Automatic annotation (TrEMBL):
It comes from Symmachiella dynata. Homotetramer. It catalyses: alpha-D-xylose = alpha-D-xylulofuranose. This is Xylose isomerase. One of its GO terms (molecular function) is magnesium ion binding. Binds 2 magnesium ions per subunit.
Amino acid sequence: MAFFTDISKIEYEGPTSKNPLAFRHYNADEIVEGRSMRDQLRFSVCYWHTFRGTGADPFGAGTLQRPWDDGTESVENAINRVRVAFEFIEKLGAPFYCFHDRDVAPEGATLAESHKNLDAVADVLAEEQQRTGIDLLWGTANLFSHPRYLHGAATSCNADVFAYAASQVKKAMEVTHRLGGENYVFWGGREGYMNLYNTDMKRELDHLAAFMHMAVDHAKSIGFTGQFLFEPKPKEPTKHQYDFDAAACLNFLRQYDLLDHVKLNIETNHATLAGHTMAHELIYASIQGALGSIDANTGDLLLGWDTDQFPTDIYLTTQCMLAILDQGGLAPGGVNFDAKVRRESFEPIDLFHAHIGGMDAFAHGLKIAAAIRADGVLSDFVKNRYRSFDEGIGEKIEAGSVTFADLETYMLEAGEVSPNESGRQEMLENLVNMYL
């Protein structure tokens, strides 16, 4: 049974189109910097917000109309939901989707029953992937919703909880591998603390590292060669999460000899909650070879929590695409819309409007970023700004061939430092505006 019978496949109609159910900038086959938009952006629809979200918030019940959902946690309802999800993704034209294990299949009364439920739904996911050609960008396990994880999962003070979480991740990895997932994500929703009086931080971090090494070992044992991803987030629901930001994640990975096995999945709303811009987090991860994928959303800067809104800011998407293009793309990662419609946008058609807007915003940002890069206006300015390190004493500093004593001798002979040149910040901001 089809549920979006009144919606045709979303087509590209160009920048002058007034059709709200058409793309104005996302033309999947258009070539940008040697690749199609489809391959540059690798859009993914997230299963949790899109097909499991209800619109509930701390002050009110769910509002979203989802006529395909019978309100039960049955396997039959979960299977029906899969059919609806792939109908939506196929009409939208996104090449990928992402899921948590508990998004697609209901929790059972026992671990064995949960595994059985997930296998049953995975059979249908595989059928739909085969039918539509839509692929799995990444899978993950929900280690934060169930009350057993109230103290965390891999960082829980209870060894049985650690073991349960490991069992759940083992199964989720196996299903992700079976479905051809190109990545597997770890998001530590409760891997942190509320109060240090009751927390052994070193022990918890040691346990998290042990958990990750077990995951690496299991991936090898089942032949999973996909990319592992950490997703930074500073707070909410805990006061402090160990994956606070890109820097904290990379420090953890280096400390515990995991850097060769795990890259980062950066999310805009998480970046701003950590007090950073998305561009900062992307560039910081990228220059260290650790930018693997992104969650494409945005947050309301007037609200202090994770609002997961769809991205519509062209400045934001342009900055994202500058960083992504600078490193040569995201594959095998992608641009996943970890975003949800507002609870006031309660009709099913709003799901299309939201995703069309997000895809167009990133496609527009991609074209602008490519034009800026083609003209070299930013890269040339930056290169010129650091030209004193390309020769003479600067070249020796970068080569590591001088000491403090050498530099003192050099400056005693050279005398006073010449005035620095202007950073031209306002000019560069104006210049970027010209491309928008």
